[in-house]
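Shipment paperwork, digital attachment
Item: protein structure file
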Amino acid sequence: MAYHFGIIGGGIGGLAAAIFLARAGHRVSLLERFEQPQSIGAGVLIQPSGVQVLQHLGLLDVVVAGSARIAALIGHNHRHKRIMNVHYADIWPQAYGLGVHRGLLFTELYRLATDLGVEFKTGCDIDGLAEHQQHCALVDTKGRQYAGFDALIIANGSQSTLRRHVSTRQQHIPYPWGALWAHCADEQQRFTGSLLQKYHHAQMMMGVLPTGPHPDTGVPSVSFFWSLKASDYPDWLAGDFAAWQQRLLDYWPELECLLGSMTDHHSLTFARYGDVVMQRWHHQRMVCIGDAAHAMSPQLGQGVNLALIDAWTLAQCLQTGASIEQAFAQYSQRRRRHIRYYQWASRMLTPFFQSDSRWLSSLRDIAFPWLNMPVVYKQVVRTVAGVKTGRLFDKALKLD
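Attachment content:
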């Protein structure tokens, strides 16, 4: 049976869900608060499990052509000791990640959704539900109503105000730390093949993610990020920009080719993060996916990855022939172990890399190299690859 779905939010998760549902024969309306659908944010790392979802979407080849293949995640502390050393091929030989400019991923998803007949309603800042006897209805901040939906998919990010209508125990806790980020040209391709990170205790973390050719210029590019406590952001803005650049170069001289393109504080954007926890992700004919359902620290690089898997799983549940309510309940059940594990792992890992604790960073520098022991390392790689579904012995996530 074909339904009319209203998807609130035109980000990666919302677009992916729209594509899967439209391809299955459903009518899909996507409501976006921006007048012109657009992508905002730094480069993203798509893990091997997310790569599988791109294959199901039919977008893998075009995304691979415009992105950077990532084979490993490597991190060193301020004493040049290797702390993180994870290689995807150690889980299966053909495994790889993709460093992708968010704009490229958005453009290809938007193009495909449009080709499939997804209806886009822009300039709709949806903030509530409207009473309607037969169908789901929405209301935006201007009081305009949008009705006629058989079900609603909430995919408008961690700050979603619609999440409150899902009747379940939930919380949204902002993190004290965030990150400055910038897209930088890397014409000589000095950074390739790996996500590289540098740490100074847990108070300073910076990294470089290759993201392939820039969608606008075609020049090889990277996404640079630097960890910063949110309360320190005003002081950073008021500080000496050249002195900050020199501080980074003193620690990581190879960054000169990137930092030289940054002229002032406004060359970087500050992003904040939060922890969204919900007991379940559905209520009657509403369901939350992506950051609206389970935002977390970006430490494990799973945000876009989980949103893609959410979209694929939701579409699979709706193909079972069950009612919408039953399919949404099945979705919550099928996603529970995977999401719970990554929320827990992210929450446990983050203080070792973003905190004021010296003893945690010292413990990290001593203990993390031991994660290379074969039995433990296998679990580490599975975690980073996005396929682990439990804390101990578990079945790998399958996206067949």
